[in-house]
Specification:
The complex is a heterodimer of chains A (419) and B (273). Chain A is an alpha/beta fold and 419 residues long. Chain A has helices at 15-20, 25-39, 65-77, 94-104, 116-130, 136-155, 165-177, 192-203, 216-226, 233-238, 259-268, 300-316, 318-339, 342-367, 372-400, 403-412; strands spanning 2-9, 43-49, 52-59, 89-92, 184-188, 208-213, 229-232, 245-248, 274-278, 295-299. Chain A has a six-stranded parallel beta sheet. Chain A has a four-stranded antiparallel beta sheet with strand order 2-3-1-4, with helices on both faces. The chains are: A alpha/beta (419), B mainly alpha (273).
């Protein structure tokens, strides 16, 4: 029995390659079904996210499983096997457990500490489990991975602080306003990072979105996409008094919003807080604006500074995350190696039970007329002796899982060879 | 025996609750937060039982001495906080409120109930209502004070672009401001009712003493004026944020003065000793 993982991720392959190997849930089901039939594997699960496509499998030993899985994956996606061979990695035995646990803990993610991977692992496992494509080994491994991932998130602070500019901006908005459903957001300009920030805000509940842009057509297009209303730039500036969060990402040589204009806005809004996220370079909001009462002004440098600080905080927790991963890998490997002794123990017990039963029948016959109660006592005696004699060797075999001990037991008790 | 049990049990429950709240905020474990709330909700009736037992032991209202009064104040603060937590679904203020409650309740638990002089006017439902409602006002002002100080700390950190690791755990500025405002509104009504019932009770029972005004009365009215000013500035001038927080802090300084120096040194009829 061989535990194996074959896959590619953001470290081994560019996005152009990764997108060709991505599996939708339907495709994953189809691929798992065909690989099971074609490769004769006992268990299989496919994990496919935007950063990785991986096949986890348990199959017969010595069958060149890794290259066959890689070939099958390439064939499924219609990709040249030779051209992409350098993109793939292969893990075997303990390395598979370590890899999946690192993935679940987000140590293998593009952004360490990102929260989505755990849900993706759970979904991939559920998909395979529902079709009974997983069995004893992968069930245990995926359960442990999810458990380790949860522990990492609850016992360490690796995922607590945001590390992207847009999520830092959203966190700050929540520190000021709390529930973003009550907030109005205006995005001035149509920069990519500005759009990403608005999307992060809407994901956390911000409802009233306005897009202001020099080109009203572009504003309308973006507003449609973001589910908001569109204004031209001047109308957008006039609308600031009704807004709570202002995201600026317009191309301009000099600040579009100066101290005097925002002072008027603040007077009109009776000093209700106004949060500027200035993502433009050169900046769209004059730095002097930050001196106004109840104005919070963050530019790209401020946000990146906080993100960098958060990243450092996350890195400080890496040894603790690694310790949780190690603990789970050890637990899994102890259990996994213990699996190898199961057939021997079963066979040993079967043999002992057969001998005990034969001897019992023989002696019951020789004892002659016994009451049913006496027969029962003799039966219990035979079973008790057998069980007590086998108990200690069984426990020790499970604990050591040493192939040498296993061979000795098989030799001493003349058990049939087999896995 | 019941008093001994209930006062120490409530201290233990408060301490356990603080531990749960703290770990919840530190590690963001919702289950620990729920435990914190549950233990806190359990501590409040046990604390009340301790107050009740002390009252029976003294054959007087339990807040007739300073430590009983502190403990009642702690209980009121706890009640006000719990209502706020259930309404706002934010537990961050717990780590500021609970140490105050524990400190006051510990004093109450350690110092034995004194033999107090039974004053005729310190009896009756109106007196009890006057004291309780005034205490509740102080508790509300304390919550407003804690919210305002937290607001100022968070506001300054956000303005300086240094939110720090605790910022996401604290209630947002808007919530802190609303908490402070709501607490002050409740406190002003309660204190006004407290002062009014005090005046009515004084008119009923003070005869010789009432010939001169007790120092506690103008001090309480001064507190009331500061908080009414807060509400007027907020309602009419649209004062918000940092400025309002400072007025709230000024109001609480007056409350603190009223409750400590006012009660202990300046007041003749509100003195505990």
């Amino acid at each position: 029995m061989e535990l194996i993982a074959v896959g590619l991720n953001h470290e081994t392959s560019p996005i152009e390659v990764r997108e060709r190997f991505a599996f939708s849930p339907e495709q994953a089901l189809e691929a798992m079904s065909s690989m099971r039939a074609e490769l004769g594997v006992r268990e299989i699960a496919i994990l496919s996210t935007c950063n990785r496509s991986e096949v986890y499998s348990v199959g017969p030993r010595g069958t060149e499983l890794a290259p066959r899985i890689r070939t099958a994956v390439c064939r499924y996606h219609g990709v040249d096997h030779e051209a992409t061979s350098s993109c793939f990695y292969v893990h075997q035995h303990a390395a598979v457990a370590r890899h999946l646990l690192r993935v679940a803990s987000s140590l293998d993610s593009l952004v360490v500490g990102e929260p989505h991977i755990l849900g993706q692992i759970r979904d991939a496992f559920q998909l395979a489990l529902a079709q009974q494509y997983t069995g004893t080994v992968l069930n245990r491994l995926f359960h442990l991975a999810v458990h380790a991932g949860k522990r990492v998130r609850t016992e360490t602070e690796i995922g607590l602080r945001p590390v992207s500019v847009s999520s830092v901006g959203v966190d700050l908005a929540q520190s000021i306003f709390g529930d973003l459903r009550d907030c109005s957001v205006i995005v001035i300009g149509a920069g990519e990072i500005g759009q990403a920030t608005v999307r992060s805000l809407t994901q956390r509940g911000a409802g009233r979105i306005t897009v202001a842009n020099r080109s009203i057509e572009r504003a309308r297009e973006l507003a449609r996409e973001l589910g908001g209303r569109a204004l031209d730039l001047e109308a957008g500036f006039a609308d600031l008094r009704f807004q709570d969060i202002v995201i600026t990402s317009a191309a301009a040589d000099r600040p579009l919003l100066d101290h005097a204009r925002i002072a008027d806005v603040m007077a009109a809004r009776e000093d209700r807080p106004l949060f500027f996220i200035d993502l433009a370079l050169p900046r769209n909001v004059d730095h002097e604006v930050s001196t106004l009462y109840n104005v919070f002004l963050y530019n790209l440098d401020d946000l990146q500074g906080i993100a960098a600080e958060n990243r450092k905080e996350r890195e400080r927790d890496l040894p603790r995350v690694q310790a949780i991963v190690d603990e789970h890998v050890t637990a899994f490997m102890q259990w996994y190696e213990g699996l190898a002794v199961v057939p021997t123990i079963k066979e040993l017990r079967r043999r002992a039970a057969r001998i005990s039963e034969d001897e019992l029948q023989e002696h019951l016959r020789r004892l002659g007329d016994l009451t049913e109660r006496d027969r029962e006592i003799v039966r219990s005696l035979a079973h008790a002796i057998t069980n007590k004699l086998l108990h200690e060797p069984t426990v020790r075999l499970r604990e050591s899982a040493d192939p040498g001990h296993l061979a000795s037991v098989r030799y001493l008790f003349d058990l049939e060879s087999g896995e | 025996m019941i008093l001994l049990l209930s006062k120490w049990l409530s201290v233990l429950l408060y301490a356990a609750s603080t531990g749960c709240y703290f770990r919840h905020l530190q590690r963001r474990k919702p289950r620990l937060g729920s435990w914190g709330t549950a233990l806190f909700a359990l501590a409040l009736p046990v604390h009340f039982l301790a107050l009740l037992q002390r009252g029976l032991l003294m054959d007087a209202v339990p807040y007739l001495d300073f430590y009983g009064s502190l403990s009642l104040f702690g209980w009121m603060l706890g009640l006000a906080y719990l209502l706020l937590e259930l309404r706002r679904k934010n537990k961050a203020m717990s780590i500021f409120v609970l140490p105050i409650i524990i400190a006051f309740h510990l004093l109450f638990a350690i110092v034995p109930a004194p033999a107090v002089e039974q004053k005729s006017w310190a009896k009756g439902a109106l007196f009890a209502f006057h004291v309780n409602v005034s205490m509740f006002a102080y508790a509300a002002f304390t919550l407003a004070f804690i919210s305002s100080v937290t607001y100022l700390v968070l506001y300054r950190r956000l303005r300086k672009h240094r939110p720090g690791r605790w910022a996401p755990l604290l209630p947002p500025l808007r919530v802190l401001e609303e908490t402070s405002r709501t607490s002050i509104r409740v406190g002003v009504v309660a204190l006004a009712v407290g002062v009014a019932t005090g005046i009515v009770r004084a008119a009923q029972v003070w005869t010789e003493e009432a010939q001169e005004i007790d120092a506690k009365v103008p001090i309480s009215l001064a507190c009331l004026v500061i908080y009414v000013t807060y509400l007027l500035l907020e309602g009419r001038r649209g004062w918000r944020g940092e400025r309002s927080a400072w007025v709230s802090i000024a109001g609480f300084s007056a409350v603190l003065f009223s409750y400590t120096l006012g009660n202990l040194l300046l007041s003749r009829l509100h003195s505990f000793f």
